[in-house]
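Bug #77: duplicate submission created two jobs. Keeping one. Sequence:
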Amino acid sequence: MRLTFLGAAHEVTGSCYLVETDRVKFLVDCGMFQGGRIAERRNRMPFHFAPRDIAFVLLTHAHIDHSGLLPKLVAEGFKGQVYTTAATADLIGVLLPDSAHIQEAEAERAQRHQHTRRREDTQPVYTTQQALACLEQIAPQQYDAELSPHPAVRCTFREAGHILGSAIIEVWLEENAKRTKLVFSGDLGQPGRPILRDPAIIEEADLLLVESTYGDRLHKDMESTVEELVHAVNDTLHRKKGNVIIPSFAVGRTQELLYLFNELTRQGRFHNLNIYVDSPMATEATRITMRHMELFDEEAIDLEAWRAKHGDQINLNFTASALESMALNEIRSGSVIISASGMCDAGRIKHHLRHNLGRRENTILITGFQAQGSLGRRLVDGAKTVRIFGEEIPVRAEIYTIGGLSAHADQAALLHWLRQFRRVPRHTFVVHGETSASETLKGHIEKMGWAASLPMLGEVFKN
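Kept job's structure:
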């Protein structure tokens, strides 16, 4: 068995792992790289394998850094099925065409300034038509049910608690009368967070791949996080008389924010909020979320019952058209605008930042991880000006970072999850983290007496 690390090695994007035995080749995830032009060029590079040779794909969840190159894979010859949970199948039905649409729009804009860009940089990685064609090969699965996509492979999807439909994947391989169990953590959620159930406990593995996004730090507790959110919103709306602009991942973070705004309204912490969700993808993702209430925790089910009776206590608007989105830029105060993308690199959020960053009374509320090279990361790191649509924009608005809302497990939660294994894996690969985070988590894992390593991009492990 050969395991090749084709992404999320010493970085948090581009998750993709190639598994090869003498009988089958398959992928776990096929994600986009994110974070500036270098990432864009990496997405255009040829795959490190022949797509036609891949028998199937196992997909942990819908986020683009895990699913975003599936249309390219299909367009270049992959004929197999993509196995994933039913909720993830619903979500990528929205995410992948939206990703293609954004690429096409960015390509059209780049072509108007082609003298400053290489020709290959002005083409989308894939088209909307190719994204839609890819969806024909999605095969939805239920949590905890055993699947055999090949005679030599069995697998099961377990709850990961990261976003709706996210999964830990257990894989059993048969090769030369030898059985090997691999576990892919995917992205693990923080226990006790709103809406979703906690990550499932896994008790044994021969080889384990564990994410490490926050492997070097702890999140603030939920009580402190809520206090920060309440202060940032109320201070901006009532004292400074400005707007709150929230770059938000359309899947997961937007729904969690809406949960919190409803819950805090129920508690009397917010009153008569004017909230605009300005992302067609986030709107559809919210609808899909409500269709999968069987995946909610008890608190979320209870809050939804309250919201059904008291929904008039929040003025919640989902914008649809581009004209409705543009009209939000005329609002000078009193509104909360939630828009994608979460790292500020594409979509409608760039327009809202362009119109709101230069005003001191406004707040830009960062609630999710910002990858190196992204516009969101530059804001978090204290940039005085940023370039948006070719224009230098001064950063005068307050940049307020709330780290406790992360959908990723922090160091303590990751270690707690690992300690539930009753049989120590023969080897643990620390992936999906920037080098410092991965190194720190690796050190803690080794202190547990486990063998661990940080694979490099393109590294091959032979079992």
